[in-house]
Write a structure and sequence with these properties.
By secondary structure, the protein is of the alpha/beta class. The chain has one domain (15-142, 156-171): Rossmann fold (3-Layer(aba) Sandwich). The protein is 24% helix and 17% strand. It contains three helices and five strands. It has helices at 33-44, 117-126, 152-171; strands spanning 18-22, 48-50, 69-76, 85-90, 133-140. Strands 2-1-3-5-4 form a five-stranded mixed β-sheet. β1, α1 and β2 (48-50) form a beta-alpha-beta unit. α1 crosses α3. The N and C termini lie far apart (39 Å).
């Protein structure tokens, strides 16, 4: 008796797997922006899987494994005007990028989370579970105090951030 083949299907035989991860806390005002964008995009593009609230980048492990594209959305502090939306594609061969993205912790040092995104990506790569492609969409936050509700600048920026993420999902081969 032969055992069934449990290996994952080849990329050529399946649809690309796209995951959305909104980092942050809904109880830290603008920090909720990432989760709100991920939820909205998942409703518009059901093929993109919102992996749920991700309060800490370490929570990505086991949830983004093997994805063709992981779009990480987070409120950031980079010194730009509140509501500014920026994107950064993390290099596939490099565990970190030369750009800094504030709260996302592209280098780990500025992270408001337990471990920065770069550290989580290095760990995922080390165990062979990293997404093939990782794009970070940062929304410049203004108010990270305890409480609910976005600042006006961030609330105004959400539709533009949603459009950017939808574009990334649609462009995925």
């Amino acid at each position: 008796m032969t055992t069934p083949d449990r290996s994952p299907p080849s990329r050529a035989l399946r649809s690309p797997r796209v995951v959305l991860a909104g980092l942050g806390s809904p109880y830290r005002r603008d920090d909720a922006a990432g989760q709100l964008v991920a939820e909205r995009v998942a409703k518009l593009k059901p093929a993109a899987i919102d992996i749920g609230p991700v309060p800490d980048p370490l929570d990505l492990l086991g949830r983004w494994d093997g994805a063709d594209l992981a779009v990480i959305i987070d409120a950031v502090r980079s010194g730009r005007a509140p509501g500014t939306v920026s994107t950064l594609e993390l290099e596939p061969a490099e565990p970190t990028s030369t750009a800094r993205l504030g709260a996302t912790g592209a280098h780990g040092a500025a992270s408001t989370h337990g471990i920065g995104l770069a550290g989580v990506l290095r760990l995922a790569r080390a165990v062979g579970a990293a997404p093939r492609r990782v794009v970070v969409v940062g929304i410049e936050g203004e108010d990270f105090a305890q409480g609910v509700g976005l600042s006006p600048a961030v609330a105004t920026a959400l539709p533009g951030a949603v459009d950017i993420v939808v574009g990334l999902v649609e462009a995925q081969p």
